[in-house]
């Protein structure tokens, strides 16, 4: 029971982080009035959030390896509460932008800190499913911002609504202090302090592990399409580009969340039971995303509703699919550098999302503004990311197979088992080992 209590407490912190992340989005009209900001300035808040979030991932991972999940979860919650407290009272646009950056910084350390608790508290066969549940349940924060927060905003005003969010952050901090431990046996011993050169060498070593890069390209190829669709270009594309009503477009975005929940559970169960099929599943998700977009974009006019529904369902699987990247990081990295590895993986999808958002905006602006044809052309920038991610997955998967094959040879020679691959089954020496006819490749690299 204790593992679930620790996980649920960390999950609450992540739910509050998602709430903090999305409050400004649902209060956009009020923010425009409060800060006298144009739509262009308000949209920059989304870009700022992603820039800060992505840019902070590696430093956050290093801090996580140094100080552990508990301290980072508390620090992240405190940063977000401070940023939201500033937003609650300020009417200055520069102060609001700075506060939003602080919120993004706190958000950046929270998710990977909660993820790091999972392998310490759960069996290895449970980790993929609990990881998926973390990502899925965290989206409840978006529901909180869209329903109770928005109701408070409309009924009680800006300051009261934002103070309510701050209070949830304070509750999360108190519960984390009382209930969360980094490991069942207590806190992880602090590693020795490192110089700047040693830190850089550690980061480089983590990146050079093929499993880390496999996770990075996995996250990149699966996550960005649905992120760009949900955070920025989906609603205008469905309404202006495809001619749907705002109500129907909103229903499709709600369907995206439901699909992600169902897909996440199935993916978690599948990868837990068949870890040797993980990269094949990832490649299938990337291919299905590219295929459904190809069908939609090939049409000379607006797509039928059933096809747009299929589009939303298929790309929404990419969200939980990206979580497989963290499983690769866990498999190929020792616990002492797992935070850094998870931060690197988490950069993949958000960097791709940022680049695609900006590139689409440039394309739409260059061809004359919002229209069916401008959106049709702008969405094609996705193919460059899919191509890069697919090549990256194939190359790093091959290198990962080679590393695991070398490890197998060491094990058969009675060498110590490397901690970096602690989650793989340890092969037992045989007098005359023969390859199994179905063993096409090392399990963790597929």
UniProtKB/TrEMBL annotation:
Subcellular compartments: Cell membrane
Bilayer topology annotation: Multi-pass membrane protein
InterPro entries: MFS (IPR011701), MFS_dom (IPR020846), MFS_Efflux_Transporters (IPR050189), MFS_trans_sf (IPR036259)
Compositional bias annotation for Pro residues: 426-436
Transmembrane segments: 41-64, 71-89, 95-118, 160-180, 214-235, 247-269, 281-299, 305-329, 350-371, 377-395
Superkingdom of the organism of origin: Bacteria
Biased composition (Basic and acidic residues): 414-425
Protein name, UniProt field: MFS transporter
